[in-house]
Amino acid sequence: MKLNGAAKFNVDVNKIWDSLHDEEILQKVIPGCQQLTLNENGEYDVILKLGVAAVKGEYIGKVRLEDIDKPNYYILHVEGSGNPGHVAAKMDCHLSQIDSGCSLKWQCDAVVGGTIASVGNRVLSGVAKFLADKFFKDIQKTIKTSV
Amino acid sequence: MSKYVGQNVKRKEDYRLLTGTGIFVADIRLDNMAEAAILRSTYAHAKIKNIDISKAKEYEGVIDVVIASDLEGKVKPFTEFVEFTLPSNLEQEIKPTIKRNPEPMLAKDKVTFVGQAIAIVVANNRYLAEDAVALIKVEYEPLPVLTDPYEAKKEAAPVIHAELNNNIQSHFEVKVGNIESAFRQADYTIKTQLKTPRVSGNPLETRGVVAEYEERSSQLQVWSSTQVPYMVRSYISKLVNLVEDNIRVVAPDVGGGFGPKCAVYPEEIVIPYLAMKHKRPVKWIEDRLEHMQSTRHSRDQVHDVEVAFKSDGTILALKDHFLLDNGAHNSFALCCAYNSAAHLRGMYKIPNYNIVGEIVLTNKTPNVPYRGAGRPEAVFVMDRLIYMIADKLNVDPIEVSRKNFIQPEEMPYETDLFYRDGTHMVLENGDYPEGLKQALNIVGYEQFRQEQIEERTKGRYIGIGVSSYIEGTGIGPHEGAVVRVDSSGHILAYVGSSPHGQSHETTLSQICADEFGVSPDQVTVKAGDTSLLPYGVGTFASRGAVTAGSAVQVASKRLREKFLAIAGEMLEVAPNDLEMKEGKVYPKALPSKFVTLREIALAAKPGPRSKVPEGMEPGASVTHYFIPPSVTFSSGFHVAIVEVDKQTGFVTILKYVVIHDCGRVLNPMVVDGQIQGGVAQGIGGALYEEIIYDENGQLVTGTYMDYLIPTAMEVPVVEMGHQEFLSPRNPIGVKGVGEGGAICPPASIANAVCDAMKPLNIKINSVPISPNRLRDLIQLAEAQ
């Protein structure tokens, strides 16, 4: 499954970069995030509770941020599995400074398996897109409230 | 003699089914019964690095969690299904390669398809079992996934089962005549690729097993929603190492089978084992998602075919190389693939024929025979070719069919092939040109052609499509019947072939009733229980009426003769001078001096009061096993009239006509019902149904929102006509009818759609003809 999208923020690119790497903020804004802890090798252990169509459940997995070019480009690696199935995704995030703040363009390549694929397939890309948009909106909100 | 055979006797089964008093496996509740749930693979191809069942085991209410290693030494792995292995003469003739590749009970070191069973949880109830399944952690290491059979057969492709060396599990070739010289003589050739997709049988009732072990008498009782209780019994005995007679397998009311329930599944072995292990009844009922993922799928063939013909439409030769995308395991030898090869030429005389079949393994759910079992795929190829030939020659396809039919005077017709049962494939009788004529009369073919031209000028696209089939039905090796009269004078017929919608209780009682001269109400048919007879085969491959029907007829006739002999002793009259009617036997000359069936049954008992003639065994029972000499060939024509909405690509079926020959019709209402139901499934294959996997081998059609099944709204009432060429291959003259309805619709409807769109010269090479696909074809044609 290939998805892409874009988000705009009215703050500086460095500020967004930091927020996207802030464990506390991430825990608040990642949809369904129950727990996010940084482990010794720089990966986050994550527990998510999510529902796609009729398939609800808990996923346990790992999130890793691969910084390629601070503050312009990083790759988000996510993998998780749970009773409803498994997900492995690689999300390329490109940030750039624009007049009113900054913009982020993302491209995601995800492999989804198990019940979520068999039952939720029709709505899966819609739900994923919705969750991604929500994630970036919530980042913006979090920054606003913290300012 | 036949008072009830041939009549619309109302189905005896319907009262209980329509009043909700039927009993299906899920309805069985036993004291202290535990329930099982199954953890299934979410990966299409992966190594299993670790399975952690500790949390699930500790979960309150969980009785047991088993994985593959727990079964070692307790439950043997499946062997190939010997029931499907090839007879030696056929093997010598076609010299196939068939690699052994049975399915494991539970995946051990690796998984090879999504939905493969990995662990079974037994708990106090289903809720707890499912909760515990969620606590099992499997660590997978994904492996490269194969979903395309053409990729899978490449030399460089990853091998799914290392011990097989490559992914080509079976290979065979069938040759008739001289294909090369025939191609040289041809005026035209057409080369094309035709594909029938993967579908799922989808009976209303999913699979399910309940097992109970009684330690006192070492009796294992298993209820399973199966088409083959005897086969289930045999494999439990072999694989769990039990005395076969200590196992009783019952198929209670079964809500449809259609083929996917016609072999043994791992659950049917492991659930009984678990019931024995824990000395508690265990129940497992498959849910619909499990059914879509794990119950074997069918069809999925791609044919690369080339046909050579003369300018007058005479077909000279046909060569075909096809792949069956089998999924990860094949335990059925060449079943569907060889059926396709044997039936591809259908009712056409094609003297030069060469077909190569390859069964290729991929990371998908394994293949199984499903209603038609290789014939819908073959018919789709042959009848699309007939229309393509007609297009090429610019003649009506009917003319091409007529030109190539096997003629009635050529019957019995030697096809120069062996059938799957190892006998020479000889079509015994039939009149195909007449059958087509009858079908075209019902639809008003000439008139339709006129109407079609007029409607086209108004921008309305209607089309007519014809398809035909022959089908070898009533395959052996045998089926038995015990017919007896109990001490109350009631007649009982026990058969080994178990029903799942075929109306055994009705039609077999008609056959038996006619022999005894009683009403079918005085006959009770029992089936679906291995305790009834020592041997049984099952209901599949359109064989029930032919095999079990014949067994009942012969056993009934012999018991009737025995009863006349006993009555002769009782009445002191020669048996030849006696008449049996309405439950009484009397001298033809003196009807008032009678003895009843009850009195005769009592006189049949052993002992000093016995009236059994000397030299005859006592008892009021006869057992007969009918062994068919070969299959018997039913045939039929399907005609579809459709309308295509050119803007949306939507196909509406305006009329559907079936003419068929199933030999003697035992009960017209039941036969019509079989055909109507078969056509419904065929329409599913033509317009709606397709199992789709994504490139990672994930099933993406796991629900009825994605996997479309036609409902009563989409299925027209089929208009029918019968031909009745009695089969000379069994005593009652019947031919099988269960599958015929499902065989032709993909071809007849595809042909009708092409006919409707003839001005655009659209070619349909695969089904289902979904609106988006048809719109694409229309757009493509318009752009040219």
TrEMBL record, chain A:
SUPFAM superfamilies, sorted: Bet v1-like
CDD domains referenced in this protein's UniProt entry, alphabetically: CoxG
The protein's name: Carbon monoxide dehydrogenase
Domain of life: Bacteria
UniProt xrefs under Pfam families: COXG
From TrEMBL, chain B:
Chain coiled-coil ranges: none
UniProt-listed Gene3D superfamilies: Aldehyde oxidase/xanthine dehydrogenase, a/b hammerhead (3.90.1170.50), Aldehyde oxidase/xanthine dehydrogenase, molybdopterin binding domain (3.30.365.10)
Ranges for domain Aldehyde oxidase/xanthine dehydrogenase a/b hammerhead: 19-144
GO MF assignments: iron ion binding; oxidoreductase activity
Keyword vocabulary terms for this entry: Molybdenum, Oxidoreductase
Cofactor(s) demanded: Mo-molybdopterin cytosine dinucleotide
Official protein name in the record: Aldehyde oxidase/xanthine dehydrogenase a/b hammerhead domain-containing protein
